[in-house]
Every structure is written in C-alpha cells, then in structure tokens.
Amino acid sequence: MTHYIIDGSNLLYFSDYVAECGDDVILARQELSRALAAALGENDGSAKNCGITIVYDVHSWIGPTEERVGEVKIIFAVGPRETQPADREILSLIERRTPSDEELVLVSDDNSLRREAMYFGCRPMSCEKFWKEFSMGYR
C-alpha cells in the first residue's frame, strides 16, 4: 500500500481552492480535505488502495492539532512562519516511519523538502502529478 504525505499549503495553493473560496484559507483547507477524502473512494481508501496524511502550516491555532475527514488524516503544524512547522512535521513523520509494506510518497513542489525526504527513502511527487493521478477536478 502507498501512503501519501501531502505538503498541505503546497497542494492548497496549487489547487486554486484558496482563490475559489474567496481567499478564506480555513474554508479552502476544509474543501480540499473533503475532496481528498472523496478521491479515496467512498472514504475508505479501497478505490485507490492508499492512505493520505495532509500537513498544514498554521501560525496561530486554537483547537486540536489532528483530525480526520473520512480516511484522510489532517495534521495542523503550529509555529511561526519562519520555522516552517509543516516541513518539520513532514520530515518527522518520514523519519519515524517503521519499515513496512507501505511506500511513502511526499506530495510537494518544495524542492528542498523533496530532497530531504528522498534522503530518508521517501519518493517525491509533484502536486500536478498527484492531482492528475487522483483525477481531482476543480482546478
């Protein structure tokens, strides 16, 4: 099984959800998360035989730092913008993985993050390729 770790801010802005949601980033995150859950196929992952974790940068946050929409796990990485909290969380997830049958794929257009993820054996994928593979509409 393949598990996709998604750089949420990258995919969010690639998808144009922010613009379509009138620059309301919170609403855009919710819409993207629902679309990803739907793309997994009836929210159980069986249609694509994969899992998805999406990590969003948030710079001020009151509430849970993790939630789920269907089978999509959402992590809100909290911290100052200059510390790139989502990048740190993504690399931590990749480093902590235990050897298993799961292939890890990082979805991001951030080249430095992609290089670091590759060092830990994670396969990089562009936002555009992910968008096409999952037949995501809207864009």
Explain the overall architecture.
This protein is α/β, with parallel strands linked by helices. It has one domain (2-133): Rossmann fold. It is built from six helices and six strands. The chain has a six-stranded mixed beta sheet. The longest helix is centred in the first third of the chain and has 15 residues, at 25-39. It is globular. 35% of the residues are buried.
Spans of 5+ residues with little confidence (pLDDT < 50)?
42-47
N-to-C order of helices and strands: EHHHEEEHEHEH
> Helical stretch count?
6
The CATH first-level class comes to: Alpha Beta
Main β-sheet, in a few words?
A: 6 strands, mixed
Note the beta-strand portion: 15-25%
Give descriptors for this structure.
139 residues, 6 strands, single chain, alpha/beta, Rossmann fold
Draw up the topology in text.
Elements: E1 2-7, H1 8-15, H2 17-20, H3 25-39, E2 50-58, E3 66-69, E4 72-78, H4 85-96, E5 103-107, H5 111-119, E6 123-125, H6 127-133
Parallel strand pairs: 1-2, 1-5, 2-4, 5-6
Antiparallel strand pairs: 3-4
Short summary:
This protein is an alpha/beta fold and 139 residues long.
